[in-house]
Amino acid sequence: MRVERGFESLLWSSRLVVLIAVIGSLAVALAMFYVATMDVAYLLSHLGQYGDLTMAADARAALRGQTVAHVVEVVDGYLLAAIMLIFSLGLYELFVSRIDIAEGSEFAERLLLIRSLDDLKDRLAKVVLLILVVKFFEYALRLPITGPVDLLYLAVGILAVAGALALSNKTKDHAAASPRRGDGHAG
Q1: CB 151: neighbour CB atoms within 10 A?
Q2: Is the pTM of this model over 0.85?
Q3: Which among 66, 39, 63, 76 is positioned nearest to 142, based on CA atoms?
Q4: Residue 76, Cα to own-chain centre: how many angstroms?
Q5: How far is CA 103 from CA 99, 107, 115, in A?
Q6: Are 157 and 136 in contact (CB under 8 A)?
Q7: Helices in the chain by DSSP H: which ranges?
Q8: pLDDT digit string (tens) for 15-74?
Q9: Of 154, 132, 131, nearest to 142 (Cα)?
Q10: Which of 45, 150, 162, 185 makes an SS bond possible with 179, Cβ 3.0 to 4.6 Å?
Q11: Residue 183 DSSP class
Q12: Cα Rg of the chain (Å, integer)
């Protein structure tokens, strides 16, 4: 009995090894917030060139394209930082302890409180989908359109992205409409 109790205690405490992933994910999230913020600073420092009224029209168009692409990269960086933060908080809540300070917060309930691996997976999947949409937009901006086939490929890509977003929303709407087990509703 004593050996079994000791082993179970050791086994239960082993879940705390997840703190390595929690701390690592949090460090990556902070690093990505820093990188994206530095990208914003870089972008803002170069925006002064856009106000140069003597700039040729083609140079202005190229600068505008580069600026839009850079903004998309910044959004991508912040989304990646957010996914790492959600992952870190989710792992902590699942394996270590609930975050007491977040329990009473309406905001935390909508975003961060993770009750199961499925909750964590769903939240991460939504952010990953958003990152993929942003990446597609970034690539679409750089796509040289030289003929009708290129336009067709772009249209098919846009259709695929729209379909993925529609399916994601349909899944979310279906989950919200179906009653949860144990909530007193017949199901």
Answers
A1: 12
A2: no
A3: 66
A4: 8
A5: 7, 10, 12
A6: yes
A7: 2-13, 18-46, 57-95, 100-103, 106-111, 117-142, 148-177
A8: 888 899 999 999 999 999 999 999 999 988 888 777 777 788 888 888 888 888 888 889
A9: 154
A10: 185
A11: S
A12: 23
C-alpha span between 167 and 132 (Å, rounded)? 15
Q: What is the residue type of 78?
A: Y
pLDDT at 127 over 50: yes
Q: Which residue has the tokens 């580069």?
A: 66
Sign of CA dihedral 95, 99, 102, 106: positive
Q: What single letter denotes the amino acid at residue 117?
A: L
User: Measuring CA to CA, how many Å separate 75 from each of 13, 40, 64, 79, 108?
Assistant: 39, 10, 17, 6, 22
Contact 87, 131 (CB under 8 A): no
Q: How long is the chain?
A: 187
Rounded Cα gap, residues 105 and 112, in angstroms: 10
Residues 6+ apart with CB under 8 A from 31: none
CA-to-CA distance for 84 and 168, rounded, in angstroms?
20
